[in-house]
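Exercise 3.2. Students should predict the tertiary structure of the chain below and write it as structure tokens, then compare their answer with the key that follows.

Predict this chain's 3D structure.
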Amino acid sequence: QVQLQESGPGLVKASQTLSLTCTVSGGSITTKTAWSWVRQAPGKGLECLGVIHYGGSTYYSPSLKSRTSISADTSKNQFSLQLTSVTPEDTAVYYCTRIWDTWGQGTQVTVSS
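Answer key:
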């Protein structure tokens, strides 16, 4: 069965770039599906940052589009998130998901001011 695991720094300074990687095991990232990054800030609901389709096309949340980039490395069976110019409001638990049936355990990212 497919499993997802997020990795990356748990603490990022404001104005810097948040970079996370999701490693996919038990299946290929090129399978005809799509992959996404979702976050949940303290006391708030789930927010989708963006989606990358198996063919490589991407969709980003309009509110975050200018700061978000999602890419895939098929040789490593991974996909990644970059969120630029972070602020403390970007503090959240970040999840990677194969939309929407398989989720990673989530990783806490705190942005320090």
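Discussion points: The mean pLDDT is 96. The chain is about 0% helix and 55% strand.
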